[in-house]
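Supplementary Methods, section 5.1.

A reviewer requested that the exact input to the structure prediction be made available. We therefore reproduce it here, unchanged from the version used in the analyses.
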Amino acid sequence: MKFSFSGHVFRRMAERGFSPDTIKSVIKNGTVIKEYPDDTPYPSRLILGFEGNRPVHVVSAYYPVDDTEYVITVYEPDSLLWSDNFTERR
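The structure derived from this sequence is encoded token-by-token as follows.
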């Protein structure tokens, strides 16, 4: 699988202190907590993973034709907005 990081994602990663390796690990090993089947150009999903104890949300879309994971954005979920396990909005 290939990974595609947009300029937007690289800016967000830098602002929020995430590395490309962390994002790849979340995508490969995390838990899909929400799917967005109507997103275009490809269906996307919200994935929860952790960097140590730090929760990480990654939104990405996989396109099987070219075996590429398109990373859309990444952020640390706010504990005031998300459940204790960071899987549901409050």
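The mean pLDDT is 95. These observations are discussed further in the main text.
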